[in-house]
Each structure stands twice: as structure tokens, then as C-alpha cells.
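User: Predict the structure for this protein chain, please.
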Amino acid sequence: MVRVGAHVRRAALVGAAISAFCLSGVAAAQSIAANDYHIAAQDLGQALSALARQAGLQLVADGDLIQGKRSTAVTGHLSLEEALEQVLDRTGLTATISDNTIVIRGRSEPPRDERTHAAESSSDVVVTGSRIRGRAPAGAAVTAIDRTAIEQTGYATTQQLLQALPQNFGGGPNETTAATARGNADFNSAYGSGINLRGLGASSTLVLLNGERPPMAGLAGVFTDLSLIPLSAIGRIEVLPDGASALYGSDAVAGVVNIVPRSDVEGLETSGRIGLADGFTERQASALAGHRWSTGNFLIGYEFYQRGALAAADRPYVSEDLRRYGLGDFRSGAAVPGTIVGGGQFFGIPAGQDGRALAVSALLPGQRNVQDRYLDADALPMQRRHAVLATARQTIGNVELYGQALFGDRQFDVAKPALYNSKTVVVPVTNPFYVDPIGTHQPVQVQYSFLNDLGPERMRGEARAIGLSGGGKLSIGRWQIDAHGTFGTERDSTTSYNLVNSARMTAALADTNPATALNVFGNGSANNPATLATIRGSIRAGGHYRLWGGQLRAEGPLLALPAGDLRLATGVEHRDELYVFDKGVLDTATLTPTVLSTNWTGRRNVTAGYVELAAPLSGAADEGLGVGRLDLSIAARGEHYSDFGNTFNPKVGLSWEPFRRVVLRGSWGTSFRAPNFQDLRQDPNAILYFAYPVPDPTAPGGVTRALIIRGNDPNLGPEKATSWTLGFDVNMTDTPGPFARLTWFGIDYRDRIASPASALLTFFTDRAIYAPIITDKPDPAVVAGYFASPYFQLLSAVTAGQVTAIVDARTQNLARQTQRGIDFDLGYRFDVNGHHGEIGMSGSWLLSFRQQLTATAPTINLVGTIGNPPDLRLRGRMSYGGAPLGAALFVNYIDGYRNNTVTPSQPVASWTTVDFQLSWRSRRTDGPLSGLSIGLNATNLFNQAPPPVRYAVGTNTIGYDVENANPLGQIFSIEVTKRW
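Assistant: Here is the predicted structure, written as C-alpha cells:
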């Protein structure tokens, strides 16, 4: 009844939104940025030619349509759409914009991709989800976030923009999740930021940069780091939340995100931004230069971004002491001053003294001093980034040459919560500061934090990426042949410092000289700086990913059908991937630094071929009843991976337009995710065998002595998924009036790569779950072979003869997940004084998210539980793009859920935040104010703190959900842009 009631409540909320159309999210219409136009009233053909020249675009128009028509005058700083509206006013004509081309048509004439050969050859628009030029994929619902929508959000970075999508889940590699282990978040070695559609993992969302795979980030190259892509140089972002491996290959299980660079910059555009929040300041500056001519264009953009570190002390919920929220106190017993442990008793060391003259009588029997491990730590790191994005295109005859380059360099520095430096140390009797609370004259244990001695544990590092692609397109009649290559590399390097070297610490504790011995009986103020320098340790690590690729593609009409051309896209692709984990330097456990011998390398090559057909099965829709327009798309892709074998994935999509601007659609297909290099490791550092007494209530003595096998299954294969969508679109154009888009989706994700190793103590208490990986009464010879292996480690006193079960706890293809949900976008567009406005709401309603760890395990529902996506996420919007003033309001809502990691489970409240932007754009066409615009932005306007929750981050506890919320709080910013 609780779940039914919750669904009814959410359905009522969605229904109210449908009828009211009163919230807001990211607009989906593509737009060309504003320009200064000066066009006199004249012959329409001459006016259109002049407008196209000023916009830097090509023009396609039927002479019969425009003959004898006159234009109205166009003057002012206008968007291209606004200029076209004015020049075509009272002509009965309309215009569509396809990338580099303005196409003029009659108002009663439905747009056709194959209308004229000239229009076709000049339009190279490829929508994400299809390789067919000039048309959206049948059956798909692609969301486009255009430049206007990007600017209206007021966000400073690409990751902020994409993480606001209702379909995105904040788990996996992100700034706040680095200490968690879910979704490869712990592989995020350099504090990058990914996108995680549907909560299926960042590795299950394919990110493209202008249709190409960028270099991958993190340990083993497990995600795309959005933070290295400059937001100021992005023209639009296309999001396809549907499986797309039939066209793009691995990783496109949850969907595809394609980031398209700007192509609208003419001249120079500069921008500066400063943002202020409680605890940090962010700064951003960018410069873009571009030029368009009749046969090509170029763009080069540079962006600098810097944000200060956000101290945990500035956010009260970034703490282990959660008593203020009624959630308990989880502070560590390792503190400064510390606690002496002797004879099973605690003796607190008093504050206010340095430990040089501590008497037993001054100790506090029965008291255990505690300390927050987030003391002096950061909630977010300092980030500093330089990024350059450049594109160029040139047509020579029937050949178009093009290229693209990305460079990103990001540095970070963060004070981390105590891990290495909060420890129990053993103080020998030789230590000159030794205190024995119980008079045994034996070494004593002291629970101690080295925070005051060494400062907080810190990590600094750098992520540097380079991506290059280039090629040429040859037009032969109505066909286009595309050959191009790509190269990408990303290197991450990190240094953890202010760590305790345990070997040198032990030596300093044994020192008998009061001037140089380590003193852990006070507040850390009395230790010799030279001694502290000696025990200070560090860890240096890094790795780099490289990608080489080449593609040969062809696209064009195959044959004529009654309703239009049957079009074909086909191609072959090859890429080589390499990941090298560099030899690290460990200086935390031995007297001298240890160079880690493993220079682990992962390598693979992938060869693929694909084919896609787009077939118009019936003609255009009309205003009355009839068959309407019916489009079919079929795609299939086969791939060979050098490290695990072959895959084949088909997809079919169908769109039916029974009435004009009403589309019913559906799709079905299969997708896959290839194992990452870490999953496939088979070197000695990735394999471990040991025997252990595991709790078992059904066994004699309550334990089963089991042999545990750790590592990676050498037969590991890809994760596989089947996905489908059903939906409808109503008036999803840029015309005024109501519009709606709704998609019902389902994903059946199987053979998910999982490691059950963390469940060691529950293998036999939850036998129903783990039965497929348990072998009872194993062959003694097999057990003896494991014990004799060089990978065996003696972690307990269990002998080979005592082993009665083997547990295969290797990383392997185990789990199955299924999702069902609804995506929607509802709203109303209107015009006021020739300017566009919109009110609406987009959202994702996850009806179910079920998982089976093994084939015979019980099914559990993950939706609405901590560590997983909430069942409902909404983003509402109201915007007006007027001149000189414009405004945008966004409301972000994350539904409440339950923290089922504690007993009894606890509710987590919903979280609603509001973003607001007020913009001003100069109407002047000359002088210093020409091309000037100013934006005033407020993110989380009312400073709503994340809902309190007892959340486990590794071995620590924190007071907010790092996957569903962020600690940024209220940010006010001002951005000034000047077009020269």
C-alpha cells in the first residue's frame, strides 16, 4: 500500500504538471546566436541573399516561390530566427535552418529532406541516433539543448549542465563521489566528472564530441571527463536516452550524449564570469574567434575556469557528527589529543598540554576522545582548468575537408578526510614521553590523529587530454563518402601527501632522544619539525589512455519509393585502445620509498561494420484522417574485440505521423558494454586466493571454512541489454502553442559485471543469493592446487583439509537489472513582441529498477533507495528571450527515497532548488555597447541544503547523499559577454 500510494501521489503530481504547464527545464530548440543585421526593404531574393551573407550561411530557395515578393527592412541585434521572421513577414513563406543552410519554403508545404538536390547536398546535419543525413532517427526522442538554453541556465561548466538532466544520476565518477566504490566512482583518480544516464553507470553512457569518441579518463579509462570540455564553445548538446549500440558500439546502453561545437561565431566573442558562494569563489574567462564564408568556416575557443576549494567546515552536513540532524555521532576514536588503550580500558589524554610532562593522574579513565575525520578537510577540491576547442571546414569542389581539436588541462588540490593518519600506534617503553596508565611497563596503544602534526591528508593532481580528428567528405551525385581518423589521449597523475610513513613513525616512536622522538601524548605542538618531516609520507600514481581510430562511411539514396527515397548509411570502423597504469611510488610503509613494480597495461583493438536503412513507408501527414507519414529505420552493427570476441546488435525504429505535428513512435534494439581493462586484468596483482572461516548458521560451529577465489574471470564477456521505447510527440517544433513529448522505456540489462567479494561475511547467511558461485564438498586435489598456487595468501589458520566449500568471488558476468520508466517534456511556447517565451517541465519517472545478483537470487527493487536513482526527478522552466531584457527560471526537484543501509531504514526528504537568470542585451549596433550582453545568475537561489541522511562514504560517514545532491549551495554570478 505504501508503494501504491507513492505512485498515486507521483502520478497526481505529473498530471497536475500536464494540465498546468507551469514549471521549467532545458529548452530543446536549436537556435543561431544573435547578430547585427542591416537589410533594407527590397526584392525578397536580394534581401534573403544579404541576410544569408551576414549570417555566414548558404541559401536554398525556389525562384518561383520568391519571385515578385518584397521584403520588410531588418535592422538591429537579432537572432537569425528573428531576422528571418522580419524579412519574410507578409510573404506567406517560412524558413528552416539546417546547420549551414537556410531553406525557404511555402507555409502549406511540409518540409522534405529530399526536396531538392541543392538542399540535400548543402545540408550535412546528422542527428544523434542516426547516420542518415538530414533526418532524425525514426522512433527516437532526441533532446537538443541549444546555445540559448545553455546560456539561460547560468551554469559555468559542462558537467553542471548535463548533471541537471532529469535522466541523469549523480552516482559514478564525480567530484563528490571519489570515496565511494559504486559505479566505478573509486576509479575517478583525478576528480573528474562524468554523466550517468538512468543510473546504469557512467561506462554505460556513450559521450561523443561532434560524433567522435573523445579520450577516456580515470583508472583503466572508464568514463569521459566532461570537465575538460569548455562550455563556452558548445553550440548544442544532443541527448538520446535509448540504447544505440547498433550504430555506435560499446557503452551506448543507457544512451548517447553528443556535444556539438559552435558554428555561429563571426568575429571575436569574449566573456568573463565571477561567481560567489559561501566558502568559495569561481572565475571563468573565455575567448572565441570564428569566421564563416561561402565554402567553409572555422572556430577556435579558449576557456579558463577556476574554483576555490570548499571547506567541509563551511557545510555543517559534511561531518561525521550528525547529532544536530538526529542521525547519530560517528566520529573516530583516533583524535588529538588521543586515547591510551590499556588492559581493555580507555584513558583519555587531557587537552591543553603538549605531552612532555603528562602524568598518569591527569588521564581521564573511561573517556575516549573522538574527532571528526572531516576536520580541516574539503567538501570539494580546488579546480583550475584551461581548455581549447577548435574546428574548421573547407569545401573544394565536391570535397569537404574538416578537422577538430580539443585540449584540456585541469589541476586540482583537495584536503581529504583522515584515512591514513588516524591510527592506533604502539608506543614502546623506550619512548621518552611514555605513559603507562595501568603500571604493566609494557608498550601501550594510543589512538591518535596526526592532523596537528602533519596537517590534513591532501591530494593534488592533473588531468590532461588531447583529442584530434580530421578527414574529408566526397560528394558523388547524391551520395557522400566520408573518410576520417581520430586520435585521443588523456593522462592522469596524482600525488597524495601529508601521509604517515608507518615504518619511519615506528622508528621515531622508538627513539630515546627527547629532542627527536615522536610524542603522541599531547596536542601535536611539541614534535620536532625535523622528526615530522621524516615521518611524512606520500603516494604518487598515474596512468594514461590512448585511442587511435579510422572510419570509412558512405550515405545516400538507395532507391526511390512512392513516399520518398530509401536511404542507406554504411561504414567500417577500426580503433586501437591502450591504457597504461604507470609505475607508482609508495612512501607510506617502508623506510625508503618503494617503486611499484607493476607497470600494468591494457590493450585492445576493435573492428566494426554497420548498416542503417531509412525508409519512408507512406507520404506526408495531412490535417484530416488518413494513413499519414510512416517512417521506418533499421540498423545493425557487428564488432570484433581482440580481447573477448564478437558482438552483434540490431535496432529498429518506427515513427507514424497520423496528423500534422502528432507523431507516434517506438524502438527496439540491443546494446552492450565491453569490459574495461581493469575487469580483464589477469596479472599477479589482480589475483588472490585465501581460506577463511565464513559465518554459516547451518554449519557445525556456525562457520564454514571456505576457499575464496578473488580476481577477474578470464572468460569475462560483455554486458548485454535489450531496450525498447514507446512514445508520442505533439507539436515538438519551435512554433507557438502547447507541446508534449512522452516516452515509456524499458531496459533489460543482463550479464552485468560484478564482484561479490565485498559480501564475504554473508556468502552463507544469504546462500540463496550466492548459491551459483558456491561449490560444496570440493575435490581435495583442487583445493590443494589452490593452496599451492603462488597467488595463495595465508590470511587465516584454515588448512586445506578443513575447507568444505569454494566460493568463486571473482569479478564476473553475474547480475541482471531491469528498468521501466517514463520520460516527459511538457510545455507551452509563446511570442511576445516578436520574442520567444516558454513555460514547461521535463522529468523522468522511474517506475521500477529491479536487480538479481545471480540467476537464482531473489529480485530486489532498487528504485527509491540510497545509492540508486530516485523514482521521480523534475526540472521546470519559464523563460523569455526578449531584448534588451530576458529572464529564465528553473525549478529542480528530486523526490524523497529511503536509506536502506541502516536498520530500520530511514526516509530521506525530497530536495527542491531554484535557479534564476536575468539577462540584458544591448540593442546598439555601433559604439562600445554594440554586441554587449550581461547575465545575472543565481544557482540554488534560496540556498536549500541537501536533505540530511546518514550516508556511508567508504569507511567514513557523512550527512548528505553525495550521489543525489551536492554541497555547492547558493551561488550568485555575473557574466559579461562582448561580441566584437
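Residues 1-33, 107-123, 621-625 have pLDDT under 50 and may be disordered.
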